[in-house]
Amino acid sequence: MRAIYWIYAGIIAALWVTFILADVPEPRIYDLDTYYATTPWMREHTLLYVLAHMVSSLIAAYMLWKWYPEVTHRWLRTGLVCLQVGYASGLVFDAAKLAAVSARWTGHNLDWMSTKAAPPFALLEAVLVALGFIAPQIGPWFQKSGRELRDYRRLRALWRTVRVVQPAAAAARFGWWVPLDLRLLQRQQRIHDALRLLAPYFCHDTYQRAQTAAVAEFDDAQAKGIAGAIALQDAADAYQRRQPRRSGHQIPQIGPDVIDHLDQVARALSRPRLFDSIRQRVTTTESADTHA
Question: d(Cα 220, Cα 227) in Å, to the nearest integer?
Answer without folding.
Answer: 10
